[in-house]
Each structure stands twice: as structure tokens, then as C-alpha cells.
Design brief:
Largest sheet: 5 strands, antiparallel
Helix content: 40-55%
Radius of gyration: 47 Å
Distance between the termini: 62 Å
Order of helices and strands: HHHEEHEEEEEEEEHHHHEHEEHEEHHEE
Number of strands: 17
CATH class of the largest domain: Alpha Beta
Shape: elongated
Strand order of the largest sheet: 2-1-5-4-3
CATH topology of the largest domain: Heat Shock Protein 90
Strand content: 15-25%
Length: about 575
């Protein structure tokens, strides 16, 4: 006897043979190359960023030194700080503005300079001929008036950031005895935040971009304040490198749109990747060939056997030529299932007979000879009384009713069609009754085509007419259809009501508990209606509720599913 081998062992060995070398190669290569590639890019960008930051730091340091020397060494500034008269203060401040003129003209990034003396309320400014709006000048003037008034010993060690509306500045204040020199740099005028061949340098303050990249960055982009490179995590994705700008509250960031690893590979690198992919596909084809021999062929044999049985050849059995124990177990299980299928077919046939018997019972209930005899007597009475037009109408109503009853309860009809025959039935009843019944129906347009079992609503209306009529008054029957939204889903509600005597207490309890007995009078028709709703929609999707409130009330709740409703046949 051939040794049985587990198919699980074979498949596991094959998968390990295919995937372990491939996975190790791909993981090692990708980890190495991605890290190497990102480091190369970050090093190149960091060099560009450091070079640019060095130039900016040099300019800021030079202006800082110049201002410090000016405050400590300039004769006019020293005299302004100790001047006693307003005239002297104005003369000294005028001389200082001449020197400021030369500063702003020779330094492109300098927005303006202020000389402020609190003692004589002097505030002079120089913008180097720049055409700035009065609104900006006024806003800056107010800021620095309040700024120097708060502290008479201001001597800043670094450049501060000032953000006003959609504009950002750097400013540096140094003072002596209530006299202050203010340098202002417009960040937009700094020859930074310029695009390079690959990315762009931007300026940051408190993690927010204050200058660079027209139009801003994508929503959700966050600067992290990290010294190492990182990715933005946005779409498109950016590689970001940050660096502190010494001597200021600023940080600079180099932002480059990340093209991915393959975006900048050389031809040789792409060739290596192609050969690797080719090797992987070769392994896949080899694995498929092996799997075909040890796994797919036995499965195909089993599928052919099942198709043969499906086509009616029940004598077919699964072969016993497999060496794998799992296929042998499947073989034995499958052959035993053939016997069970035959038994299931018998059970299914018996259920079909039960359903037909239920339908036959319903026909017997619905076709009541005495009802039609009474109708014919009424028509005869109309003809005898010479009421030919009414007799003709009665014949039409009766023929419609009989035709609908003979359609069969197994059919599905639209709510619109069912309610038409409800109204036809009421008109038929009005012929011979001293107190003819009335019927009011309400059907929204979106529910007109909803499918329900035929002769279902009509059965409840017939019960109302037969058992709900009181002495000396007309019966009012109402049929109202609506939609309900609940936490459990959407429901169609069919509400049938009358102003008759209502249900008996014992019958009402039995109906609400689903204990309808087919031998108890008018509960027979109700039982058949409930059974047909449950057969079509599923018992879990239909709820019946019975109550007495000014007469008999019946509510049918049908859960809305993809299978429910539809066009009428």
C-alpha cells in the first residue's frame, strides 16, 4: 500500500521554497536601498539647506553687530539718549536717519529702521524709498511704540518674529536710556524661500510656515521640528529637513516632493530590479507546475465527479486513486453525501406537498358558495325591481372578484392591484346591505408597486365585513400604507382597521402569540395570510400586531430588504 502523505505538508514545503528566498531578498534589498537612497537625498538637501542658512545667519549676525556698534559707539545716538531739549533730540534723530538711509539702500532684505526716544516722544522711520502703504506703516509704528514703552531696558540678543495679517517680519531692538534702534527685515524680501532644482526652502516659526512655497502646502502637513529627515505623510508626499537659524527665532526647512525610490534610479539599478522580478516570476511558474501535479489535478477530478452528479448521474462516485490522506477523507465524505442528497430531495418534495396542501386549504376557505349565492340573489332582486344598471354593475363587480379569487393565493401582486380588488369587494357588498360598508384607502406612490401575497389584505377586509358589522350602523373599513424608519431598519406598514365589534379576547391573545388555530372560525383566513407572508419574506422580516381600538386593528410590518418589493408580475 502506498504511503499516505499530507497535502498540507506538500503545500507548506512548496510555499516555503518559493517565498523564503524571495521574501529575504526583497526585504533586505528594499531596506538597504530605501535607507541608502533617503540618506543620500537628505544629505544633499541638508548641504543645500546648511549653505543657505549660513548665508542668512551671516547677514543677520552682520546686522546685529552693526546695530550693537551703532548703539554703543555712534555719537548722535549717545547724545540723543542724554539730550535735554526737544530741538537737540530732533537734530540728533535726523542725523541718525541719514545713516539708516544708507543701511536700507545697501541691504536688500532690510524693510526699514526706526529710531525711538521716549523722553521727547520721537519716532522716526526710514523705508529706503520703498513704496509701502500707510496701513502697514501705521500698524508697525503702533506695535513698536507699545513694545518699547513696556520695557525701558530692551536689548535683544536674537532676531524676533513679528506676524501681522498675512505678512511676516524679523526685528531686532537695542536701546540705551530710553532710546531705541529698531531694524526690521521683511521675510518675503530674503533671497531664501527660493525654489531649487529639486525642492524649496521655507522659513518656520513655532512649527508654522511664515515664508515660502506660494499657495502653501497640503492640508494636514505638519512640521515636526526634527533634526533628522522625515516624510510629510500627505498626498503628494514630501521629504523634509529642518535646521535652526542661529541668532533668530526662525527655523528653516528644505521641502522636496518625494518621487519614490524608482523615480531617480539609474539604468543599471532598474536592470537589477527587472532581473529580480523575472526571477520571482520564474519561481511562481515553477511553483504552479508543481502545485498542478500534486494539488490541482486531484481537485479537478473531484470537481468533474460533482458535475457529473449535478447532471443527474447519481451513480457516479469519487475515485480512490489519491495518495494524500486529505483527498481520501474528502472522497469518503463526498460519497456519503450522495446518499444524504437523495434523502434531502425526498424531504424537499414532502415540503412542497405541504405547501400545496396549505394553498388548497386557502382555496377552500375563500370560495364560499353561500357568498356567491347571496350575490346572485341580490342581482336577481335588482333585475326584478327594474334596476338594470345596478344589476349590470353588480355582475361586473362579482366577475372581477371571482376572477381575482381564482388567480391563486401563491401569486404575488402589487399593493395597488390588491387595494383595487378591496374596493371592488366593498362595492359588491354595498349592493344588498341595508347599511352598506365604506372603505377608505391610503397608498403612497412609492409603495404602489410593492409586492405582497395575493388575497391577503382582502382577507382582513372580508373578516371585518363578515364579523365586524354592528346593529343599525354602517361599517367603516380603513387600509393605510406607510413607511417607518427605526433603529433596526426601514419597514413598510400596512394598517387595516374597522369600527366594528373587534376581536374576542381569547382570539386576540392567540393571534398576537401566533397561536392561530385553523378550526376556529374567522382565524383560519388570518392564519393562511400570516403563513404566506412568512413563506415569501421570511418569518424574521414580518411582524403581525392585532389590537382592539374603536374596532379591530391589524398591523403588518415588513422589513425592507433587497429581495422585498419589486414590480408586479
Amino acid at each position: 500500500m502506498r504511503k499516505q502523505r499530507s497535502i498540507k505538508t506538500k503545500v507548506l514545503v512548496i510555499l516555503l521554497f518559493l517565498q523564503i528566498p524571495l521574501a529575504v531578498m526583497i526585504i533586505v534589498y528594499n531596506l538597504y536601498y530605501i535607507r541608502f537612497y533617503n540618506h543620500q537625498i537628505s544629505d544633499a538637501n541638508r548641504s543645500a539647506l546648511s549653505s543657505w542658512c549660513g548665508v542668512l545667519e551671516s547677514d543677520l549676525s552682520r546686522l546685529d553687530d552693526r546695530q550693537l556698534n551703532f548703539v554703543t559707539m555712534n555719537e548722535d545716538f549717545r547724545m540723543l539718549a542724554i539730550s535735554r531739549t526737544a530741538l537737540e533730540s530732533h537734530l540728533y534723530s535726523y542725523n541718525i536717519l541719514q545713516e539708516y538711509q544708507e543701511l536700507v539702500e545697501n541691504n536688500e532684505g532690510v524693510f526699514g529702521c526706526y529710531i525711538i526716544n521716549n523722553s521727547h516722544q520721537i519716532f522716526r522711520e526710514n523705508y529706503g524709498g520703498k513704496q509701502e502703504s500707510y496701513e502697514w506703516k501705521y500698524a508697525l509704528r503702533q506695535f513698536f511704540r507699545e513694545y518699547v514703552a513696556e520695557d525701558e531696558t530692551i536689548t535683544q540678543r536674537s532676531w524676533q518674529v513679528l506676524q501681522m495679517k498675512n505678512r511676516s517680519f524679523l526685528y531686532l531692538v537695542k536701546g540705551y536710556r530710553g532710546t531705541y534702534s529698531v531694524y526690521i527685515i521683511d521675510l518675503h524680501q530674503i533671497p531664501a524661500a527660493r525654489e531649487s532644482s529639486m525642492g524649496q526652502i521655507v522659513l518656520l516659526h513655532d512649527g508654522q510656515m511664515v515664508e515660502g512655497m506660494e499657495g502653501g502646502l497640503e492640508e494636514g502637513f505638519l512640521f515636526r521640528g526634527m533634526d533628522d529627515y522625515y516624510f510629510s505623510g500627505t498626498d503628494p508626499e514630501y521629504l523634509v529637513i529642518e535646521q535652526e537659524v542661529w541668532g533668530s527665532q526662525l527655523r528653516a526647512a528644505y521641502v522636496m516632493e518625494y518621487q519614490g525610490v524608482l523615480g531617480s534610479l539609474s539604468r543599471g539599478q532598474k536592470t537589477i530590479i527587472f532581473l529580480s522580478v523575472l526571477f520571482v516570476f520564474s519561481l511562481i511558474f515553477l511553483g504552479c507546475y508543481i502545485l498542478q501535479k500534486v494539488f490541482f489535478r486531484p481537485v479537478d477530478v473531484l470537481v468533474d465527479t460533482m458535475n457529473s452528479i449535478k447532471n443527474g448521474r447519481m451513480e457516479t462516485r469519487a475515485p480512490e486513486e489519491f495518495s494524500e490522506k486529505e483527498f481520501l477523507e474528502v472522497n469518503n465524505t463526498f460519497n456519503s453525501m450522495i446518499e444524504q442528497i437523495q434523502q434531502l430531495k425526498i424531504d424537499s418534495y414532502e415540503k412542497e406537498l405541504d405547501l400545496k396542501q396549505t394553498q388548497l386549504n386557502y382555496y377552500q376557505i375563500q370560495i364560499r358558495p353561500h357568498f356567491y349565492v347571496n350575490c346572485l340573489k341580490s342581482i336577481y332582486g335588482l333585475l326584478e325591481a327594474g334596476k338594470d344598471a345596478k344589476a349590470q354593475s353588480a355582475i361586473i363587480y362579482l366577475s372581477r372578484h371571482l376572477r381575482y379569487m381564482l388567480k391563486g393565493s401563491a401569486m404575488m401582486v402589487s399593493l395597488e392591484e390588491e387595494l383595487q380588488y378591496v374596493e371592488n369587494y366593498i362595492e359588491l357588498q354595498r349592493i344588498s346591505m341595508a347599511y352598506p360598508p365604506e372603505c377608505v384607502t391610503e397608498l403612497p406612490d412609492e409603495a404602489r408597486k410593492f409586492q405582497i401575497p395575493a388575497i391577503s389584505v382582502l382577507s382582513f377586509v372580508e373578516n371585518s365585513v363578515k364579523y365586524g358589522m354592528g346593529e343599525g350602523r354602517s361599517l367603516l373599513v380603513g387600509v393605510h400604507v406607510s413607511f417607518m424608519e427605526t433603529e433596526e431598519g426601514s419597514y413598510l406598514n400596512i394598517h387595516i382597521s374597522d369600527n366594528g365589534v373587534g376581536f374576542g379576547e381569547e382570539l386576540l391573545r392567540a393571534l398576537n402569540q401566533g397561536e392561530t388555530a385553523q378550526t376556529e372560525g374567522h382565524s383560519v383566513g388570518i392564519h393562511n395570510v400570516m403563513q404566506r407572508f412568512w413563506l415569501y419574506f421570511g418569518r424574521e422580516n414580518v411582524l403581525f400586531a392585532f389590537s382592539n381600538m374603536e374596532g379591530a386593528n391589524v398591523d403588518i410590518f415588513i422589513r425592507q430588504t433587497e429581495e422585498s418589493g419589486g414590480e408586479s408580475a
